[in-house]
Amino acid sequence: MHNISSNTPDGQQRPAVARLLALIGQRFGEETRRQWADYSFMAAFVILILIAASASDVFFTQRNLSNLFRQIVTNGLASLGMLVVILTGGIDLSVGPIVALTGILAAGLTDQIGLPLAVLIGLGIGLLAGAANGFLVARFKLPPFIVTLATLSAFRGMIYVYSETPQTPSNPAFRRLLGGGFIGPVPVAVIIMLACFPLVWVFLNRTTVGRAIVAIGGNEEAVRLAGINVGRHILLAYIISGFFSAIAGVLLASRLGIAQPNVGVGYELDAIAAVVIGGGILGGGGGGVIGTFGGVLTLGLIDNLLNLFNVQSYYQQILKGLIIIFAVLARRRDQ
Questions:
Q1: What is the DSSP letter of 207?
Q2: Rounded average pLDDT over 38-46
Q3: Domain of 172?
Q4: pLDDT tens digits for 50-75?
Q5: Burial label, 63 (beta-carbon count in 10 A; 0-12, 13-18, 19+)
Q6: Which of 77, 105, 169, 177 could bridge 248 with an S-S bond, Cβ 3.0-4.6 Å?
Q7: What is d(CA 310, CA 316) in angstroms, rounded to the nearest whole number?
Q8: 231 and 225 Cβ atoms separated by less than 8 Å
């Protein structure tokens, strides 16, 4: 920080003032750009709703809306974990394999050891996978992108070590009680997902640990100087990501009634897209639970609308990639 006083020679004062004004202008420009990005996504969401309502007679039917919310459960839970990691300035590319690994373990073990224990083992594996990512990032200061890219491959290999064929539990409770169950007209999986969003909001905004995780992405060095154990909080962030991916994997396998070893490919892209649409900034410093839910809902709406019009999935992937590019450009930090 430059001290500007009356004793400072005019030749030194002017550059310091110019730098200060430039910094203020830069920050103002960044905030303005991010606000316009938020408004753009809100407008796009409203336009999508209007298009869906006018172009399809089945969009607002109970069956289609139920399918829409059931289909966003997996991405909704994975995006919550991704949000926590991105808030620390990290990234988790291994969410897809974790979804597949935990789902196939829960499905495969249900007939052998019972549904409750099989689900607990699946969730436990998700926690361990997240802990492995967090330990490598926090303990050895390795780049999160490289670590989770490596574990993406490793976890995917573990899936095929366990089973190269789909797992279909014969116990009907596996599907009836979780992903395929309903409470009234509302699917159980949707209730679980919707319950997780306010829980994470409270964690990030009303707990000391959660606020520390958010602060790490904004200024890690300042958090460290404040006496907070940065490594421990980063480790926790990746554990949370692994846990939510595990819940998503179990619910997905339960909803489908079968666990495919090749499921989860590209799920990390969907989770990242949902977070950045909702205001998340890759590298830390921005993002929130409410915005992430909006991002999840927007992507789900796009997929649902394109499916109603029988648009091939390839075009859906192109659109998601373009959305991520736009969101990152709109919310980038100026150097």
A1: S
A2: 80
A3: 29-330
A4: 888 787 788 888 888 899 999 999 99
A5: exposed
A6: 77
A7: 11
A8: no
